[in-house]
Amino acid sequence: MKTQATSLDVARLAGVSQSAVSRCFTAGASVSDAMRNKVQEAARKLGYQPNAHARSLITGRSRIIGLVLSALENLYYPAVLERLAKRLQQDGYHLLIFIGDNANSDDLVEEILQYNVDGIVLGATTLSSALAQRCADASIPVVLFNRIMASGSAGAVSSVRSDNVGGGRDIARFLVAGGHQRIAYIAGREDSSTNLERERGFRDGLAELGQRIYARAIGNYDVDQARQAALDLFANAADRPDAVFVAGDLMAIVVLDTLRHELGLAVPQDVSVVGFDNVPQAAWASYELTTFEQPVQPMVEATVELLQSYLRQAQTPPSRNLVVPGQLIIRQSARQSAPRSCLL
Hints:
The chain is built from 13 helices and 12 strands. The protein has 3 domains: 44 residues, Orthogonal Bundle (434 Repressor (Amino-terminal Domain)); 130 residues, Response regulator (Rossmann fold), CATH 3.40.50; 146 residues, 3-Layer(aba) Sandwich (Rossmann fold), CATH 3.40.50.2300. Helix 1 packs across helix 2, helix 1 packs across helix 3 and helix 8 runs parallel beside helix 9. The termini are far apart. It is an alpha/beta fold. Helix 9 links the parallel strand 6 and strand 7. Helices cover 42% and strands 17% of the residues. The chain is elongated, with a radius of gyration of 25 Å. The strands form 2 sheets. A 6-stranded parallel beta sheet has the order 2-1-3-4-5-11, with helices on both faces. Strands 7-6-8-9-10-12 form a 6-stranded mixed beta sheet, sandwiched between helices.
């Protein structure tokens, strides 16, 4: 049986050190093009393939990041998954993906810990204080993407999220400036930090301008429930809202379709609709959805930087909660305030 070539064999053939061979097969490592080409040519001649598992036994690092997602039906998270995977690959890390179906990821995190991951990212989900402490004790950094832990929770769990409060406030100001008087809100999951923050900012923004939420329904970030929420809010033609802020773009798109195709309302002439996320579909000509953007790439960069900063240190540092600014993207689904020249 043919003996498998080793990194030492490659080093001898290429005339370099074994550590140089290791660097040439490590993403992001500092090595010249000439050195990399020489080592790769020797590896091709010998049929050498680096063994990631063996390397992890030597270094104590698997270079694997566990990722839990619980809302892939949300149009926002496929984009997050793609960007996060590509960004980690640039640094020689890879994702081990688990899909959850509820807001708590304890069971999946328990399973992830069996794979000797270097870190964990939780998207649209959270974990218990006890399990957070276990991860901290094992020096495994955990970063919540677009969620935060409950106040006072144990364990060094960090978070990266968009400015949900500021976004809600900006949407309130925009709708009031557009002359709307009966502004409704369709909530996401009522126990999620994203929804709580967006609604708080929205209420505060309306209150600053002497208004309050005219009517409210719950969509739970779900297609069917968002449709029903729209039907409920607009059931009475004599007392319907003239604008609605929907806590997520997936729901907002469903609401747009429901208003137009089931209730026969014109958007934005009869009612304005604003979402939150700025998913790619929001810009489609069929929707032209005004929405507050959660900037995917800056949030991914912040997540990776948090993980890397923890992995560079011997001990897990205190948790950090980063808020990434977003912006209101104005399209055709909502009436805007008239230009100043038109008011003179």
